[in-house]
Amino acid sequence: MRILVLGHTGYLGRHVAEQLSALGGVRLFGGGRSPDADLRVDLATADTGRLAENLADLSPDAVVNCAGSLGADPVTDAEVNARGPAVLCAALREAAPTARLVHLGSAAEYGAGEPGVPVTEDAPTRPVASYGATKLAGTVAVASSGLDAVVLRVGNPVGPGAAPMSLPGGTALRLRRAGGDRDAVVRFGDLSAHRDFVDVRDLARAVALAATASGPLPRVLNIGGGRAVRIRELVQGLVAVAGFRGRVDEAGIGSARSAGVPWQCSDITAARDALGWEPRFTLTDSLTALWASLGAPGEADPVA
């Protein structure tokens, strides 16, 4: 089976590629902007015709799109998260119309949830910022493409190698830099919002199952931990794993997105039914692996 992973050098893409490469009978191709990519492409600016030619040359049985913009700015979000999937779908219809497309969406597409009620795939989508809105546009492009496609609507990924721009990755780096200083103070805004965290390795396994599943899949599947976790709990968990002896100061205003989405949790029943998938890693497992992936103090900080 020939599988192309777009965004194969990113945080999610690296784990997905590793999971797929461990499967027997899979020939893996990497796609993206990196010089060593088998398919050099930037979906934000790609020409549909040229991309179709390149896809025809690779002749993939499945394509996994891990490329995405994490709320960098509205223009970049639109180019990568909305235009990118639309161009990819158009090229696939021309070059590989029978290939399975697995696209990574985001729980941010739902917007704020009702406390205590996990959202199902048919819940209304009310994104509150450009990131969620453009991810939703990408989902619409994929779901309406007519291709053999599934969107995995992902919660908040956490685990080894988490990007420094993410809350888990950024928090771990701040604790690492503070070291063992008892007088160190690490400051945060409001940490009262709830999120659904999913280990990146569990996500990668869901992608592998979706890419290799026989028969059609639902258009959208939630992939999350299935549990609403207060962000404060995640920070406290990292403090414990890191052995941080200083003080965590929670004061001031948090991010605008947290304020707009105080509670979020995904119902993952459909993914269990369609893929036989469920999370295997606990939040503690994820945080322990994240901390270990940073390396020893004094080593160079990881980059996104």
Automatic annotation (TrEMBL):
Alphabetized InterPro entries for the sequence: Epimerase_deHydtase, NAD(P)-bd_dom_sf
Residues of the NAD-dependent epimerase/dehydratase domain: 3-224
SUPFAM superfamilies: NAD(P)-binding Rossmann-fold domains
Family: Belongs to the NAD(P)-dependent epimerase/dehydratase family.
PANTHER family: DTDP-D-GLUCOSE 4,6-DEHYDRATASE-RELATED
Protein name according to UniProt: Nucleoside-diphosphate-sugar epimerase
Species the sequence originates in: Streptomyces wuyuanensis
